[in-house]
Specification:
Fibronectin type-III domain-containing protein; mainly beta; two-stranded antiparallel ribbon; 34% strand; four-stranded antiparallel beta sheet
Length: 71
């Protein structure tokens, strides 16, 4: 599989970040995302015959993170 992600879903797919994922994997962790930020993800299958169609974009907002409490 090929996982694509971006902050702007209207960017051309060539400008999205691309991460290859082995076909035997059922999960994948994307690292180094910004807190409290909306990302868009798309996935595409790939095999010896080429690549399949791209999925529609899926929106995901990362966690807000912890706030510091001043005393």
């Amino acid at each position: 599989y090929i996982l694509y992600y971006t902050l702007d879903k209207n960017m051309p797919i060539d400008d999205w970040v691309m991460e290859p994922i082995g076909g035997d994997r059922l999960t994948h962790q994307v690292l180094d995302l910004n807190l409290d930020t909306v990302y868009y993800f798309r996935i595409q299958a790939k095999n010896a015959k080429g690549v399949g169609p791209l999925s529609e974009p899926v929106q995901y907002r990362t966690a807000k993170g912890e706030r510091l409490q001043l005393k």
